[in-house]
Automatic annotation (TrEMBL):
<keyword id="KW-0007">Acetylation</keyword>
<feature type="domain" description="AMP-binding enzyme C-terminal">
    <location>
        <begin position="519"/>
        <end position="598"/>
    </location>
</feature>
<dbReference type="InterPro" id="IPR045851">
    <property type="entry name" value="AMP-bd_C_sf"/>
</dbReference>
<dbReference type="InterPro" id="IPR020845">
    <property type="entry name" value="AMP-binding_CS"/>
</dbReference>
<dbReference type="InterPro" id="IPR000873">
    <property type="entry name" value="AMP-dep_synth/lig_dom"/>
</dbReference>
<keyword id="KW-0547">Nucleotide-binding</keyword>
<protein>
    <recommendedName>
        <fullName>Acetate--CoA ligase</fullName>
        <ecNumber>6.2.1.1</ecNumber>
    </recommendedName>
</protein>
<dbReference type="GO" id="GO:0003987">
    <property type="term" value="F:acetate-CoA ligase activity"/>
</dbReference>
<dbReference type="Pfam" id="PF16177">
    <property type="entry name" value="ACAS_N"/>
</dbReference>
<dbReference type="GO" id="GO:0019427">
    <property type="term" value="P:acetyl-CoA biosynthetic process from acetate"/>
</dbReference>
<keyword id="KW-0436">Ligase</keyword>
<dbReference type="Pfam" id="PF13193">
    <property type="entry name" value="AMP-binding_C"/>
</dbReference>
<feature type="domain" description="AMP-dependent synthetase/ligase">
    <location>
        <begin position="75"/>
        <end position="461"/>
    </location>
</feature>
<feature type="domain" description="Acetyl-coenzyme A synthetase N-terminal">
    <location>
        <begin position="12"/>
        <end position="68"/>
    </location>
</feature>
<dbReference type="InterPro" id="IPR042099">
    <property type="entry name" value="ANL_N_sf"/>
</dbReference>
<dbReference type="InterPro" id="IPR025110">
    <property type="entry name" value="AMP-bd_C"/>
</dbReference>
<dbReference type="GO" id="GO:0005524">
    <property type="term" value="F:ATP binding"/>
</dbReference>
């Protein structure tokens, strides 16, 4: 049992050593003692990073919803599973017990079956943070359909790309969504997207805003009447451990978004294990992660990890600034939240506001605070620690990725001494390595390099949907025999890790991963644009903001530059979503390029960050005069 729940630092080191000495034995013990399997595995782990092929608990049979719901019914059936806090604070919160969740998931699963959805079919879910989102996710898992949740802030084009990439025939959505004081026409976005998705035969619509929407005859149906008619029990489809559970898209540094495929058994074991330890979860806790289920954080630490532990998980529909900047703390006080998990960008935004928004609430229920999504700066860390945690709550700075499925590096609260801006130590079973430019491992402490992981863990993504070659190229080719994360990191004198940021062309804006290529593609669609390059630059609240260098087709005044900038941002909003809008746009005569024609983004990054004292090696630069001019006119 002690393997499953680490309670002090010495125990962490013991467990860690054991997990590295014998990973199979370690994970087998965790899997055996804490989960419900219809049939045990033939082998714990088979792997070959050169193919790459990774299988955990191969041959085992299970259904993840049986682990997340059914097995709790006899012991905590009347406990709240999902605590829904609506956008409007005057609308009552909804407590969905495990019994009720069981019934609602079963009904939804039966509706999906009635609509012809079968095991292995992909279902795209484009829903706001309302209970139907979590229920739809679990309903898919119940019948073995592969869910692909698309964050409901993505544009119609981004949605269409994802629907077509995974070959979904069904989309689950709502009439609209609330975001603070705004209502968003989600169904309209789906209608627009589906013009490009001929294979989608059916759309189920949840009612949320009650706004007028278009229902296409023969394709669209309101889901509630179907749920009302559906049978309230649905036996779970028995899945293989390695059957896909979901696809979740993440931005790559080039090309289209990557549909990361997560499978069933290993994902369940790892998310449940890390949830328990990273949040020191106990039975009476009220756990709240403010992420959206459209991101991996929501999948693993709103839905699967907490429910697998029988926890009460808060699902929040709103935003931190509505009706005012005290909303998070109002919710913490109201529901006596014990663990609170959010993004550095939210902390930075709230820290800018009057402290009264925090101090007027009773936050004494809090025991653990968490952050995820991007590096947390020292100032934000201290504000969080002082004013939210009252210096009594350990902060878990959790580093992980869509691809990793679960948290890989994080303190264990009340065990690992925390250190501002450090994600600290690897979880049991995680073997990090720092590599130099030549792909050699850098041993010892007080070093920095590219962060890799040497050995598989149960929740690593198994492939990119429909493109195994790209999976291999992106993650297993940069450094032979290791999983390459795309992040840089340093290891301090005691072996703590600090993530320093991406070393590729992914930019993290407000905790969202954005690839430069798709944004540049969107900009380049503008008839006046010849070429563009996007880089990140430091931003007080967002962490990074986007700076676009754009070459226009015609020299001289094409037309009003301000309007042009607006049109460009409009194009980005249409193609990707408002999160990818540029904060600064500089029209330039050319871009710094190497002789082989590659844009030297390093130089553009330095100019955007106003750090031009040392531009580094510019000897391969083809057009140094352009750099001079860009610097002169920089914003
Ligand atoms: C879970 C999630 C992954 C990228 C990752 C890294 C950055 C995440 C971080 C962090 C510093 C942390 N990142 N957590 N950087 N400290 N605690 O965010 O997944 O959306 O795929 O982003 O986010 O750069 O590589 P995802």
């Amino acid at each position: 049992m002690s393997n499953y729940h680490i309670k002090h630092l010495e125990e962490y080191f013991q467990v860690y050593r054991k997990s590295v000495r014998n990973p199979e034995g370690f994970w087998e013990e965790v899997a055996e003692e804490h989960f419900l399997w219809r049939k045990k595995w033939n082998s714990v782990l088979e792997w070959d990073f050169s193919k790459p092929e990774i299988k955990w608990f191969d041959g085992a049979k299970l259904n993840i919803t049986e682990n997340c719901i059914d097995r709790h019914l006899s012991i905590r059936g009347d406990k709240t599973a999902i605590l829904f806090e609506p956008n409007d604070p005057n609308e009552p919160a909804e407590h969905i017990t495990y019994h009720q969740l069981h019934e609602r998931v079963c009904r939804y699963a039966n509706v999906l079956k009635d609509q012809g959805v079968e095991k292995g079919d992909r279902v795209v879910i484009y829903l706001p943070m309302i209970p139907d989102l979590a229920i739809a996710v679990l309903a898919c898992a119940r019948i073995g359909a592969v869910h692909s949740v698309v964050f409901a802030g993505f544009s119609s084009t981004a949605l269409a790309t994802r629907i077509n990439d995974c070959g979904a025939k069904m989309v689950l959505t709502s009439d609209g969504s609330y975001r603070g004081s705004k209502a968003i026409d989600l169904k309209g976005i789906v209608d627009e997207a589906l013009k490009q998705c001929p294979d989608v035969k059916s759309v189920l619509v949840s009612k949320r805003t009650g706004s007028e929407i278009n229902m296409k005859e023969g394709r669209d149906q309101w889901v509630q009447p179907l749920l009302d008619k559906a049978y309230a029990d649905c036996s779970p489809v028995v899945m293989d451990s390695e059957d896909p559970l979901f696809i979740l898209y993440t931005s790559g540094s080039t090309g289209r978004p990557k549909g990361m495929v997560h499978t069933t058994g290993g994902y369940m074991v790892y998310t449940a294990y890390t949830f328990k330890n990273v949040f020191q979860y106990k039975e009476e806790d009220i756990y709240w992660c403010t992420a959206d289920i459209g991101w991996i954080t929501g999948h693993s630490y709103i839905v699967y990890g907490p429910l697998a532990n029988g926890a009460t998980t808060v699902m929040f529909e709103g935003v931190p600034s509505y009706p005012d900047f005290g909303r998070f703390w109002d919710v913490v006080q109201k529901h006596k939240v014990t663990q609170f998990y959010t993004a550095p960008t939210a902390i930075r935004a709230l820290a800018k506001e009057n402290l009264d928004f925090v101090t007027k609430y009773d936050l004494s229920s809090l025991k653990v605070l968490g952050t995820v999504g991007e590096p947390i700066n020292e100032e934000a860390w201290h504000w969080y620690n002082d004013h939210v945690g009252d210096k009594k709550c350990p902060i878990v700075d959790t580093w992980w990725q869509t691809e990793t499925g679960g948290i890989l590096i994080s303190p264990i609260p009340y065990s690992t001494p925390t250190k501002p801006t450090y994600a600290t130590l690897p979880m049991p079973g995680i073997q990090p390595a720092l590599m130099d430019e030549n792909g050699k491992e850098i041993k010892g402490n007080q070093v920095d390099g590219r962060l890799c992981i040497k050995f598989p863990w149960p929740s690593i993504a198994r492939t990119i949907w429909g493109n195994h070659e790209r999976y291999k190229d992106t993650y297993f080719s940069a450094i032979e025999g290791k999983y390459f994360t795309g992040d840089g990191a340093l290891r301090d004198e005691v072996g703590y890790y600090r993530i320093t940021g991406r070393v590729d062309d992914v930019i993290i804006v407000s905790g969202h991963n954005l690839g430069t290529a798709p944004i540049e593609d969107a900009i380049n669609e503008h008839p006046a644009v010849a070429e563009s390059a996007i880089v990140g630059f430091p931003h007080d609240i967002k962490g990074n903001a986007l700076y676009g260098y754009i070459i226009l087709k015609e020299t001289g005044e094409y037309r009003n530059r301000e309007n042009l900038a607006k049109e460009i941002n409009q194009l980005i909003t249409e193609h990707i979503g408002p999160i990818a809008k540029l904060d600064k746009i500089q029209f330039v005569p050319g871009l710094p390029k190497t002789r082989s024609g590659k844009i030297m983004r390093r130089i553009l990054r330095k100019i955007a960050s106003k750090d031009t004292s040392n531009l580094g090696d510019t000897s391969t630069l083809l057009n140094p005069e352009v750099v001079e001019q860009i610097m002169k006119e920089s914003l």
